[in-house]
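Below is a filled-in request sheet from our internal design queue. Each sheet records the structural input a requester submitted and the sequence that came back. We keep these sheets so that new team members can see what a complete request looks like end to end.

REQUESTER: design group, bay 2
PRIORITY: normal
MODE: inverse folding
CHAIN LENGTH: 493
BACKBONE (tokenized):
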């Protein structure tokens, strides 16, 4: 042991990131790991506490404490007058390289083939990349313009007023004052008719979609999605074992004729009617009414994702589909990630009253409830009028940035692509010329640290149009034009 494993123990004790752990615990962990990995074999004698302390440069009490703890766990056996030994065990450690061998260990390690079909679908879906340092054209709100000082003051106010009851489990529906503010805002600005008792506060719109898929649809049933459409919704529904039916989108939004033609063959239809993602169309009133009629006749569900309806620059925001059929066949989803900042992780789901108990029960199984403090701060932010003030201010900023972005696009990128001029939102969609390869252009942009999500990836079928999604909200106009010049130089003529 003294010559064989002292160096190994020293290396384990000095591992990066372990310096804040007390020495006794570090020694316990190191010896335990050597036993599990097979470096110390069954029945092998360990040095005395005095010798171990001398070899490792530790206090003898430190070694004694570690030995005592490992004996209590069953890893070591201490015999009066004989010494300290690695305990005998009728069960070999699975990770023991000596007893199992590398090949057997690798064969027994769990792999993707052991996932369920649903697990494999989730794994294939991948994830949405994080953007701790936003790149040019990433579709994000402008957090630099967020009133952080106001938010911090409200946070301090909320924390000062915390009572011990706040430390317990909270209402799975969400913080009641926040639900009241959401109901008031939706009624005034989106035409949504819903009481506080119909609103469930969640962590994200994807969580809302997951609950809807689990509670209202059976695996194998069909759900209609916009083509092209939001990849996150597609991934959630695939993971739930649903069959996806792509419904084409044109300048008036999703084709309600195609939805009605499917009739009861589809159980639900997912739409982004106020600002279709990614093409930016606004669903016409005629088609909204047709969807409501389809839902009533087939007892299907309309899943209305109103993800960034606040940012409409040409005319007033369009009223929600839910306002045409309140409390009936529409499930309305909203999020604060696009309106305020992505790190907030707060969204909400407006439900028909009859569905609320089931959704609350399911929500308690997922994560119990959303963190109360962030909800309380947001409730104060809305109650004091900062929320609507922020939206009005950002609508002006984004409006100006959209116009400047479009002008710079025509100047620098029009020979490569044409743009769909958006009436609202945080991005515009560029359609590539026939001769420009989408994958090559995205790769060229990435080499210059430019984010260009590919439009074709948002199509379910192979015949999607080539293009880019270009976020304009998070970039000041000068930075956006600079990035466009860089991109134009990177693309092949």
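RETURNED SEQUENCE:
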């Amino acid at each position: 042991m003294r010559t064989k494993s002292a160096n190994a123990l020293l290396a384990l004790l000095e591992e990066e990131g372990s310096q804040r752990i007390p020495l006794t615990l570090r020694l316990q962990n190191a010896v335990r790991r050597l036993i599990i990995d097979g470096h110390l074999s069954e029945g092998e004698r360990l040095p005395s506490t005095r010798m171990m302390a001398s070899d490792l440069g530790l206090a003898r009490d430190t070694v004694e404490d570690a030995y005592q703890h490992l004996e209590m766990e069953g890893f070591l056996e201490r015999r009066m007058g004989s010494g300290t030994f690695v305990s005998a065990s009728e069960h070999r450690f699975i990770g023991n390289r000596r007893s199992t061998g590398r090949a057997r260990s690798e064969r027994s390690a769990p792999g993707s083939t052991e996932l369920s079909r649903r697990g494999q679908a989730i794994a294939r879906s991948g994830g949405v990349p994080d953007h701790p340092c936003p790149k040019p054209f990433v579709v994000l709100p402008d957090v630099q313009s967020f009133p952080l000082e106001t938010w911090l003051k409200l946070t301090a106010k909320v924390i000062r007023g915390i009572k011990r009851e706040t430390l317990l489990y909270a209402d799975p529906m969400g913080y009641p004052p926040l639900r009241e503010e959401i109901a008031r805002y939706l009624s005034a600005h989106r035409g949504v008719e819903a009481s506080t008792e119909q609103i469930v506060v969640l962590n994200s719109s994807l969580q809302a979609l997951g609950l809807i898929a689990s509670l209202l649809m059976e695996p194998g049933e069909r759900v209609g999605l916009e083509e092209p459409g939001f990849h996150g919704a597609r991934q959630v529904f695939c993971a739930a074992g649903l069959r996806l039916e792509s419904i084409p989108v044109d300048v008036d939004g999703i084709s309600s004729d195609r939805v009605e033609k499917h009739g009861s063959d589809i159980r639900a239809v997912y739409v982004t009617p106020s600002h279709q993602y990614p093409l930016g169309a606004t669903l016409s009133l005629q088609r909204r009414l047709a969807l409501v009629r389809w839902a009533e006749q087939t007892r299907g569900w309309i899943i209305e994702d109103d993800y960034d309806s606040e940012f409409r620059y040409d005319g007033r925001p369009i009223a929600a589909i839910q306002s045409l059929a309140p409390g009936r066949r529409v499930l309305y989803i909203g999020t604060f990630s696009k309106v305020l900042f992505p790190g907030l992780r707060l969204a909400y789901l407006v439900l028909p009253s009859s569905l609320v108990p089931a959704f609350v029960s399911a929500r308690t199984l997922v994560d119990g409830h959303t963190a109360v403090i962030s909800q309380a701060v947001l409730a104060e932010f809305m109650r004091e009028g900062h929320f609507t003030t922020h939206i009005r201010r950002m609508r002006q900023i984004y409006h100006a940035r959209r116009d400047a972005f479009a002008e710079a696009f025509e100047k620098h990128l029009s020979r490569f692509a044409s743009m769909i001029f958006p009436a609202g939102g945080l991005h515009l969609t560029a359609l590539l010329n026939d001769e420009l390869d989408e994958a090559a252009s995205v790769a060229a942009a990435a080499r210059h640290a430019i984010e260009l999500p590919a439009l074709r990836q948002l199509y379910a079928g192979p015949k999607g149009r080539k293009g880019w999604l270009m976020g304009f909200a998070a970039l000041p106009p000068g930075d956006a034009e600079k990035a466009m010049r860089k991109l134009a130089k990177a693309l092949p003529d």
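SHEET NOTES:
- DSSP finds 18 helices and 14 strands in the chain.
- Residues 121-129+146-384 form a domain with the Aspartate Aminotransferase; domain 2 fold (CATH 3.40.640.10).
FILED BY: M.R.
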